[in-house]
Write a structure and sequence with these properties.
The complex is a heterotrimer of chains A (380), B (175) and C (274). Chain A is of the alpha/beta class and 380 residues long. Chain A has 2 domains: 185 residues, Rossmann fold, CATH 3.40.50; 110 residues, Rossmann fold, CATH 3.40.50. Chain A contains 13 helices and 15 strands. Chain A has a 7-stranded mixed β-sheet with strand order 3-2-4-5-7-6-13, with helices on both faces. In chain A, helix 2 links the parallel strand 2 and strand 3. In chain A, helix 1 crosses helix 2, helix 1 runs parallel beside helix 6 and helix 10 crosses helix 13. Chain A is globular. The N and C termini of chain A lie far apart (57 Å). The model of chain A has no long low-confidence stretch (mean pLDDT 97). Chain B has one domain: 3-Layer(aba) Sandwich (Pyruvate-ferredoxin Oxidoreductase, domain 3). The longest helix of chain B has 16 residues. Chain B starts with a strand and ends with a helix. Chain B is of the alpha/beta class and 175 residues long. Chain B contains 6 helices and 6 strands, in the order βαβββαββαααα. In chain B, strands 2-3-1-4-5-6 form a 6-stranded mixed β-sheet, with helices on both faces. In chain B, helix 4 runs parallel beside helix 6 and helix 5 runs antiparallel to helix 6. Chain C is α/β, with parallel strands linked by helices and 274 residues long. Chain C starts with 24 loop residues before the first helix and ends in an 8-residue tail after the last helix. The longest helix of chain C has 15 residues. In chain C, helix 1 packs across helix 6 and helix 4 crosses helix 5. Chain C is 36% helix and 18% strand. In chain C, strand 5 and strand 6 form a beta hairpin. The chains are: A alpha/beta (380), B alpha/beta (175), C alpha/beta (274). Chains in contact: A-B, A-C. Chains A and C meet through helix 3, helix 4 and strand 9 of A and strand 2, helix 2, helix 4 and helix 11 of C.
Chain lengths: 380, 175, 274
């Protein structure tokens, strides 16, 4: 594979594959589904060329399981899917979170529920990404809004996953996945690649799930001198099944703690337009592109509008959203769903700032004119 | 204002190569150092359903990736023409296939015999290259040499000559 | 390797195991440990993958690397482990629920792909752990807690399924036949490509109690009486066949395994994860 470098023009899904390979991914297991299939096709082409393996599994249940398997054997692994497949992957997403197996899951969101409008964009999986798998669990979810960012965030998704021993979801959408625009791919030596922590103790003292001050385990890959036991059942520091109430409590609280205490590192947002404005649009993914156009157009109209773009969906950027709620007179939340993030913003609205939700669930992206007319309506 | 900007929609039927044509147009614009975004919409059918490519070319940063104020629409099917005829500004050009599309005779409707010309050249698969030529002749967004350069880079040898001929035909002939 | 005891492969400190008196799982675990010891595979070279169920608890007692996952997905995890590091020996221990009921899709596709794994499927004709409900191998008319008047569905023949799907090695035995059990496990593990060893095992607590006898000894005798060699079985009348099952090796071939084909077709070599 000739690695693309420098200025390139490509599709979001394509940038994702190059980001993954640059991050060190050498295994992909997936089941084809529109609008994510380009990721599978390009992995099938390129992974063997870099000594990796592409595997088309029999379904998404098995795809996510195979990704976990490869990662436990020490190979960075990922999968890509869309709504219906994402739902099937929830089973083993829970397994990966609970057993702290690093891996990346890309969801190119499409209109739903169920088969829905299979080729049309949506942002209806924000809450599924957060709560789709059962039980209390933490998760990291990132949302790109350009082809450049799809490359950058894929790399970052692998890095965060390896650093915190947790699956990371890249929550994109059909618009960004299929969009072609230019991006710059850095030289390999300029990339920062994070690899999971390895054991730092003698074999006799080693316990795979024993953590130090950072709450992050050091799980050796299968095949090393350190024998590792990974279990989807409640487990203690040895990794073996252990069903005491205290063990269950401590494990899940630690899983949350390792993410909560690192929120500053994980959470990313972008402020666009004037730093303070009367109207703040909070948006993400494809719709944040609409919002940026609105911020530019508003400036020309003499309207005070800015954008808070959520790059990290989960953990939710509480502090940044609270800042927006305290600075703006009005908050506008355009989403290609029925207000999944707007509800989350309401949770933080102790100041009772007026929040207006713009929703669209017809498979069409929200247009600049829709947001603009809402702004003109509410600031009058 | 949004600066100097072209919003072009290439609409028709899956299999006509419109998404590829959009990609070529976009790459030619990149070659000229412009900002470009290309997106696409399509249905479940790989062949035969409605399909469109959208290309935005600008000297400035492009935020919104879709064409909300198109300057030119290529309509290679009746569905494509009907989808846009009532939703665009008067100065938006709709370039339609005059053997397929029945128009409402808008002021800026321009007809061309795309299918007919393609059959004359002996291959309907080069219809998209003819269309690219006509689009460039009507609105001088990009230099024809930029498109030719991209075609040479992107197309395999065996079909390159015919596509260049098709592009030149569209670029040079009126109807 | 002169003192390579089967005990090196067991976590004896985790005993006593959870299995009921008269269950065959402990015998199969013992045979598994002996097979690994006799093959001279170091525990660090082996990954034991399990799902959910009585036999799905077996990872608790093994000293190899282990991955215990969700119900039915053992072979899918195992597939990923094998391709994540092809030098590992990867063995999936599953019950009839894991292997051919909830995980049936993964089972046929792992066999079709002929991925270099060994599946040790304990078939006790029902879901023992959750209270004796019927599975995809419960025979027609058999009584279980979800077929109190008899099962209206016929059961799968696991070996035929694996054979039809393309496995390289297919064999059946029982915990009564301990020597053949150990030997078949060794053969399956050594075989490149997908191997299936089905072990028909008593469940005196449920399936046995409802359909055979609640006495562990009677269930062992049932295995002894019902199991006949492949060659003897072939010469039985159809009527006799209904009353027996064949044990021994059904398939032993050398179709290239998935990863060998993959490397050949893609002209590539495994270069490791990082």
């Amino acid at each position: 594979m000739k690695r693309p470098v420098g200025k390139q023009f490509m599709q979001g899904n394509e940038a994702c594959v190059f980001g993954a390979i640059d991050a060190g991914a050498r295994f992909y297991a997936g089941y084809p589904i529109t609008p994510s299939s380009e990721i599978a096709e390009l992995c099938a082409k390129f992974l063997p060329q870099v000594g990796g393996v592409f595997l088309q599994m029999e379904d998404e249940l098995g795809s996510m399981a195979a990704v976990i398997g490869a990662s436990t054997a020490g190979t960075k692994a990922f999968t890509a899917t869309s709504g219906p497949g994402f739902t099937l992957m929830q089973e083993n997403l829970g397994m990966a979170i609970y057993t702290e197996v690093p891996c990346v899951l890309v969801n190119i969101q499409r209109n739903g529920p169920s088969t829905g409008l299979a080729t049309r964009p949506a942002q209806g999986d924000v809450m599924q990404a957060r709560w789709g798998t059962h039980g209390d669990h933490p998760i990291i979810v990132l949302s790109p809004s350009s082809v450049q960012e799809f490359y950058d965030l894929t790399l970052r998704a692998f890095n965060l996953s390896e650093k915190y021993s947790i699956p990371v979801i890249l929550l994109s959408d059909e618009v960004i996945g299929h969009m072609r625009e230019d991006l710059v791919i850095p030289e390999l030596e300029d990339l920062v690649i994070v690899n999971r922590k390895l054991p730092n103790k003698p074999i006799k003292e080693y316990r795979a799930y024993q953590t130090e001050n950072d709450d992050i385990p050091r799980i050796a890959p299968f095949g090393s001198e350190y024998i590792v036991h990974i279990s989807s059942s409640c487990h203690d520091e040895t990794g073996f099944t252990h069903s005491k109430p205290q063990t269950a409590d401590q494990l899940v609280r630690r899983l949350h703690r390792k993410i909560e205490r690192n929120q500053e590192d994980i959470i990313q947002v972008e402020w666009f337009g004037p730093r303070k404005a009367d109207v703040c649009i909070i948006a993400y993914g494809a719709v944040s592109r609409t919002a940026k156009q609105v911020v530019v157009d508003a400036q020309e109209k003499g309207l005070s509008v800015n954008l808070l773009r959520l790059i990290t969906h989960w953990p939710f950027p509480d502090e940044q959203v609270k800042e927006a709620l305290s600075q703006a007179k009005v908050i506008i939340v355009p989403e290609m769903n029925l207000g999944q993030v707007a509800q989350e913003i309401l949770r933080l609205n102790s100041l009772q700032t007026p929040i207006y939700s713009i929703t669209r669930i017809d498979g069409e992206i929200i247009m600049p004119s829709e947001i603009m007319s809402k702004i003109e309506e509410v600031i009058r | 204002m949004r600066g100097k900007r072209w919003q072009i929609i290439l609409a028709g039927t899956g299999g006509q190569g419109l998404i590829l044509a959009g990609e070529v147009l976009a790459k030619a614009a990149i070659f000229e150092g412009k900002k470009v975004i290309q997106t696409q919409s399509y249905g479940a059918q790989t062949r035969g359903g409605y399909s469109q490519a959208e290309v935005i070319i600008s000297d400035e940063e492009i935020y919104f990736p879709k064409c909300d104020q198109p300057n030119l629409i290529l309509a290679l099917s009746q569905v494509a023409y009907d989808k846009y005829k009532g939703n665009v500004t008067n100065d938006c050009i709709i370039l339609y296939d005059q053997e397929i599309v029945t128009t409402n005779c808008r002021e800026n409707d321009i007809g061309y015999s795309f299918n007919h010309r393609a059959i004359e050249l002996g291959n309907t698969k080069i219809l998209n290259s003819i269309a690219l030529g006509v689009v460039l002749r009507i609105c001088s967004i990009l230099k024809n040499t930029s498109v030719i350069k991209v075609l040479k880079e992107e197309l395999p040898e065996r079909i390159l000559e015919l596509n260049l001929e098709a592009f030149n035909l569209g670029y040079e002939s009126n109807n | 390797m002169s003192t390579n005891s089967y005990k090196n492969y067991l976590k004896e400190e985790h005993f006593p195991h959870i299995w009921c008196p008269g269950c065959g799982d402990g015998i199969v675990l013992h045979a598994y440990a002996i097979a690994l010891a006799e093959l001279g595979l170091a525990p660090k070279e082996v990954v034991t993958v399990t799902g959910i169920g009585c036999w799905g608890k077996s990872d608790d007692y093994v000293a190899t690397h282990a991955l215990h996952g969700t119900h039915g997905r053992a072979l899918a995890y195992a597939t990923g482990v094998k391709l994540g590091n092809p030098v590992l020996t990867v063995i999936a221990l599953m019950g009839d629920g894991d292997a051919v009921t909830i995980g049936g899709n993964h089972f046929i596709h792992a066999a079709r792909r002929n991925i270099d794994l060994t599946a040790v499927v304990i078939n006790n004709f029902n879901y023992g752990m959750t209270g004796g409900q019927y599975s995809a191998t419960t025979p027609l008319k058999s009584k279980t807690t979800t077929s109190p008047l008899g099962n209206a569905e016929p059961g799968f023949d696991i070996c035929s399924l694996a054979e039809a799907a393309g496995a390289n090695f297919v064999a059946r035995t029982t915990p009564f036949h301990v020597v053949s059990l150990k030997n078949l496990l060794k053969e399956g593990i050594q075989k490149k490509g997908f191997s299936l060893i089905e072990v028909i095992t008593p469940c005196p607590t449920y399936f046995g109690r409802y359909n055979i006898n609640s006495s562990p000894v009677a269930n062992m005798h049932w295995l002894k009486d019902k199991a006949v060699s492949v060659s003897r079985y072939q010469h039985m009348t159809d009527e006799d066949k209904l009353q027996h099952f064949a044990i021994g090796t059904f398939v032993n071939k050398d179709r290239p395994d998935f990863y060998t084909m993959y490397q050949q077709i893609n002209d590539c070599k495994w270069e490791g994860g990082r």
